[in-house]
C-alpha cells in the first residue's frame, strides 16, 4: 500500500508540472480567460504566395499582365479632349478601389493590402481618402502620415494613386481653402515628379448654399494654380456641388485657361439612385470635358441598403463604353453594404494585410473583385 501511495504522489507531481508548463507558468485561475483578442497578425504578400492562400481560385492572377506595372504601361497620364490618355496619347481607363476614412479604417491601408488588391483584385489605381472634417485631418493632422504611407506604397508597387481631400460634413471647400493650399503644396513638392499621383482637391462639396460659381470654381482655380506652380503635369480631379453629382452649372461655366490643363471633373454615384444623370455626362463629354468617377457603389447613397447588381452592371457597362475611370467605395469592415469586408464583430476582424478568404468578403466585395479581374487586362 505504501508503495502504491508513492507511485500516486509521483504521478500527481508530474501532472502538476505538465499543467504548469502548458499554461506558461501562470497559476492564475482561469488561464487566459478575459484577455483581449489579439489584432490580426500582419502577413506580407510573399507569405500568402508561399502558403498558397488564395481567394476563390487556386492561385493569384498576379496582375494579369505580370511583365509590367500599370505605371510602366501607361506612364504620365494626360487629358486630351474628354479622354484620359496614357503618355503616348492613347485613351486609357483606370479601375480600382477607395479606402474608407484613413482616420477610421487606416489599419487596412498599408503596402501589403494594396499589393493584395493589385495582384488578386487586379486594380491599377488606389484612392487614399483623407477626411478633412469629422475628426479627420483638420482635427488630427497626423492622419496625413497614413496617406503618405499609402502613396509611398503605390509608388513602390507601380500603381496610380489618388490623394483625396475628403470634404463631406465640412461641406464648403472655401471654409478651409488655406489648409488645402498648404496641404497640396506639400504633396506636389513631395510627389510631383512621380507620374503615379492624382490630386482630388475636393471630394463632395454639398449643402444648398454651396454653388459652383460661388464656391467650388474659385476654390478649384486657387488650388490648381498652387499645384501647377510646383507640378505642371499630373492629373487634378475637380469635385462639384451636391456631393459631386455634376450639376449642369459646371457645363455652363467650366474651368478655362490656365486652369483646364490635365483636369477631370468628378462624378459620384450610388446606383440605387438610378442612372438618370448619364445623359448629362454624355453632353459634358461631347463638350470636351473629361469625367472621372472617383467614388461609386451599387447601393443606396448612404452606403447601405440593398446591393443593386442590375444597376451596378449597367453603370459599369456605361463607364466602359465611354472609357471612364473609376474607384469603388470602400475598404473597411464597417457594418454597411458598401464595405468590401464582412463585419464579424471586434473580436473576429479580417486580416489587415489582405489574403482574404471568400468568407471574409461582403457580397459587394465579391461582386467588385469579379468585375475588376475582368477589366484591367
Question: How would you sum up this structure, described in words?
Answer:
By secondary structure, this protein is of the alpha/beta class. The protein has one domain (64-375): TIM Barrel (Alpha-Beta Barrel). It is 37% helix and 14% strand. The chain contains 13 helices and 10 strands. It has helices at residues 2-22, 45-51, 70-74, 102-105, 111-121, 144-157, 177-191, 212-228, 241-244, 248-252, 278-286, 309-321, 363-375, and strands spanning 78-80, 83-85, 95-99, 125-131, 160-166, 197-200, 236-238, 263-270, 291-297, 325-331. The protein has an 8-stranded parallel β-barrel with strand order 3-4-5-6-7-8-9-10, surrounded by 6 helices. The model is unreliable at 1-38 and 52-64 (pLDDT under 50).
Keywords:
single chain; 377 residues; alpha/beta; TIM Barrel; eight-stranded parallel barrel; two-stranded antiparallel sheet; 13 helices; 10 strands
Helix and strand arrangement:
Layout: H1 2-22, H2 45-51, H3 70-74, E1 78-80, E2 83-85, E3 95-99, H4 102-105, H5 111-121, E4 125-131, H6 144-157, E5 160-166, H7 177-191, E6 197-200, H8 212-228, E7 236-238, H9 241-244, H10 248-252, E8 263-270, H11 278-286, E9 291-297, H12 309-321, E10 325-331, H13 363-375
Parallel strand pairs: 3-4, 3-10, 4-5, 5-6, 6-7, 7-8, 8-9, 9-10
Antiparallel strand pairs: 1-2
Helix pairs in contact: 5-6, 7-8
Amino acid at each position: 500500500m505504501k508503495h502504491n501511495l508513492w507511485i500516486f504522489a509521483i504521478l500527481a507531481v508530474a501532472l502538476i508540472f505538465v499543467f504548469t508548463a502548458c499554461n506558461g507558468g501562470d497559476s492564475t485561475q482561469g488561464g487566459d480567460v478575459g484577455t483581449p483578442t489579439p489584432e490580426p497578425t500582419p502577413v506580407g504578400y510573399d507569405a500568402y504566395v508561399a502558403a498558397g492562400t488564395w481567394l476563390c481560385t487556386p492561385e493569384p492572377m498576379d496582375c494579369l499582365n505580370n511583365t509590367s506595372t500599370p505605371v510602366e504601361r501607361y506612364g504620365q497620364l494626360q487629358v486630351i479632349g474628354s479622354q484620359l490618355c496614357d503618355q503616348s496619347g492613347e485613351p486609357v481607363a483606370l479601375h480600382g478601389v477607395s479606402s474608407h476614412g484613413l482616420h477610421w479604417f487606416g489599419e487596412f491601408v498599408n503596402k501589403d493590402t494594396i499589393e493584395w488588391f493589385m495582384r488578386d483584385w487586379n486594380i491599377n489605381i488606389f484612392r487614399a481618402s483623407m477626411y478633412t472634417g469629422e475628426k479627420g485631418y483638420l482635427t488630427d493632422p497626423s492622419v496625413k502620415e497614413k496617406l503618405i504611407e499609402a502613396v509611398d506604397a503605390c509608388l513602390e508597387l507601380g500603381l496610380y494613386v489618388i490623394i483625396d481631400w475628403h470634404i463631406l460634413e465640412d461641406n464648403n471647400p472655401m471654409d478651409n481653402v488655406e489648409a488645402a493650399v498648404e496641404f497640396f503644396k506639400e504633396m506636389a513638392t513631395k510627389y510631383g515628379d512621380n507620374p503615379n499621383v492624382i490630386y482630388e482637391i475636393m471630394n463632395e462639396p454639398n449643402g444648398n448654399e454651396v454653388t459652383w460659381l460661388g464656391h467650388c470654381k474659385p476654390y478649384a482655380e486657387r488650388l490648381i494654380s498652387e499645384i501647377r506652380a510646383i507640378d505642371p503635369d499630373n492629373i487634378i480631379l475637380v469635385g462639384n456641388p451636391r456631393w459631386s453629382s455634376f450639376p449642369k452649372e459646371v457645363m455652363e461655366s467650366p474651368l478655362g485657361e490656365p486652369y483646364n490643363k490635365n483636369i477631370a471633373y468628378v462624378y459620384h454615384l450610388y446606383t440605387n439612385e438610378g442612372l438618370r444623370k448619364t445623359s448629362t455626362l454624355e453632353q459634358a463629354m461631347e463638350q470636351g470635358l473629361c469625367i472621372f468617377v472617383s467614388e461609386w457603389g451599387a447601393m443606396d447613397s448612404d452606403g447601405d441598403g440593398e446591393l443593386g447588381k442590375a444597376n451596378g452592371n449597367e453603370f459599369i457597362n456605361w463607364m466602359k463604353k465611354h472609357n471612364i475611370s473609376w474607384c469603388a467605395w470602400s475598404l473597411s469592415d464597417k457594418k454597411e453594404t458598401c464595405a468590401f469586408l464582412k463585419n464579424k464583430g471586434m473580436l473576429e476582424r479580417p486580416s489587415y494585410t489582405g489574403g482574404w478568404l471568400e468568407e471574409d468578403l461582403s457580397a459587394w466585395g465579391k461582386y467588385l473583385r469579379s468585375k475588376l479581374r475582368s477589366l484591367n487586362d
